[in-house]
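Narrative of activities, Objective 1.

The group set out to show that a structural description can be obtained from nothing but a protein's sequence at a throughput compatible with the screening campaign. Below is one input-output pair from the validation batch, recorded exactly as produced.
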Amino acid sequence: MTKISLSTSTTFDGDFNALVENQRTALTVRFDLDEPAPAGGLKVYVDSEAEQIVNRLDLAGFGFRPITENIDPSSIDTNSDGSGFFLTVDEGAMMGSFTINVLDNLEPDRFLPEILDGLVESEFSLITTDGVASEDVEFVGELGDYTIDPSPDAASSMVLFADDESQISIFPQLNPGYDEAVSGDISNDPTNPLELPLSAGITPLSVTTGDRDQEYVTITIPEGLQLDTLVLESFSESNVAFIGVQEGDIFTEPLNDSAVRENILGYALFGEPRQVETDILDNIARGWGAIGFEGALPSGVYTFALQQIGISSDYTLAFNVSESPVESILVG
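Output recorded for this entry:
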């Protein structure tokens, strides 16, 4: 079965994968296959959570002057709510792409301003047959026989839509971070943790853990910055894990009942479905018997301990750092 990956790029001259209306930037969507597309081509489907987001692209202009490679422009169409699109990669091709301009829409939009105006973050994801929403089955039709490349960032791609560049300046910078599946195991030595450098913006930490694995990560929050939130972006299994934090570059307490809670800055259990896409820093701050803290973590060095006792789980934590207006208060 053909394995396929998705990537996007824009002509925006900046650090973000962004489309800016008043700059008439363009989006290129690319598909890579691990074998030539079969006879008749390979029909693929891409969707997002943002209804009508595809209508921020210049569909009419593309219809007059399509830019494609190994994709028949006539095969490209949108789904029922304008959140995604489908197309066919040419027979024998191992890649296909198309490029389309952003639409310079008049503001304010009277139809759907929350999507068609202002800054909108949209994640486009490859969808296989079993993932097509029921309301889209008739529109999309029969897809090709393919699987999605399991490599990091191969299944989806984030695009920012904005009216002008000033709107993007308020969006947090996404920093490289650390992915255990790509870069190797996180340290299990509390005296020699993995060092995860933080800077202004969002720094992701992706972890694969289970069978009582212990992982230790030291972060340094630079002077003048603070850790605003620690968001649990994803958690693959509904199985609770432990997270604790101490000041300093080591973790001194064992991860069992003999730990002296008064030596720990904060701790929490996480991983319940309701916690996904929420900030767990407040939960950590309220760990019973721990030192505790209020609000954001101020500049300094901190070491986090992570442990999953049950089945293996994959999860991603996002450290969100910004300028510090005031120093947070550590509560004794």
